[in-house]
Amino acid sequence: MYEMKTVVGTSQIDKDGLLKASSIFDLMQDCSFFQLDSDIELTKYFNENNISMFLVLRQVDIYKLPKYSDKITVRTYVYECNEAYGYRNTVIYDENDNELAICYAIGGFVDLSSGVLIRVPSSFIENYKFDKKQDMNYLPRKIKTDNNLLKEIDRFKVKKYCIDDNNHVNNARYIDMAIDYADDNFKRIRIEYRVPAALGDTIVVKKAVIDDKVLLKFDNEDNKTYAIIEFSYSL
Asked: Angle 21-38/40-49 helices, nearest 10 degrees?
């Protein structure tokens, strides 16, 4: 388990002074990578084999949003792993250790030379220590879509400020992109990552409203999918 403590700052809040959805993703992403970096054996194995992790899915359930200047703690840990995927929980707590937002995420092992998902030896998994799985509603890895219901509502090109050091759109920036197409007060965000979008790529936004959910599909102009985002208004 890895833990980081911080205070909600002005750059992380929305118009109501509450932690932004993308800031939740930023905090969880940062904590997860700090945890990976703190694991000396894992880092050594990744470096020697030119391997990294590609985020496949993140589900975030939101109980309460902290406000500006609130003290919060972010904790993350891996609870399961197989030869293809690792599974982790990340939780944001208030200063009294009450859960504010909980997450489960799935990451695939990727060969940095080819960009292809790979399998790691079972011997590597056997030596890893896992933590207890968080109690939450684990929805499927694949977000169900119906192309007959999805309608194009916008398209735009990827800008420089969205790009991270992997030279593609940072995972949290998809939330910044998506937030304009959903109403406020959502309780859950699920995002399935497919093909990374790069600088200058055109993102075609397709939207459907199904029951209490807003479904967004970010495609390229050839209908290849970058990401699927689902906002739910109940847990």
From this structure: 90
In the 3-class helix/strand/coil scheme, how is 204-215 assigned residue by residue?
Answer: EEEEEEECCEEE
Q: Is residue 85 part of a domain?
A: yes
Query: Which pLDDT band holds residue 124 (cuts at 50, 70, 90)?
Result: confident
The answer to the question of residue 145 being in a domain is no
Mean pLDDT of 106-135: 90
Cα separation, 78 vs 150, whole angstroms: 35
Q: What CATH number has the domain bearing residue 78?
A: 3.10.129.10
**Spatial contact of 44 and 50, defined as CB atoms under 8 Å apart:** no
139 within some domain: no
Residue 113 confidence class, pLDDT cut points 50, 70, 90: confident
User: Is the overall model pTM greater than 0.85, yes or no?
Assistant: yes
Are 34 and 98 part of one and the same domain? yes
Whether residue 163 sits in one domain with residue 117: no
Residue 212: its pLDDT value, please?
93
Check residue 101 and give its pLDDT. 98
The parent domain of residue 34 ranges over 2-127
129 to each of 1, 32, 103, 122, 132, how far by Cα in Å?
10, 16, 20, 14, 10
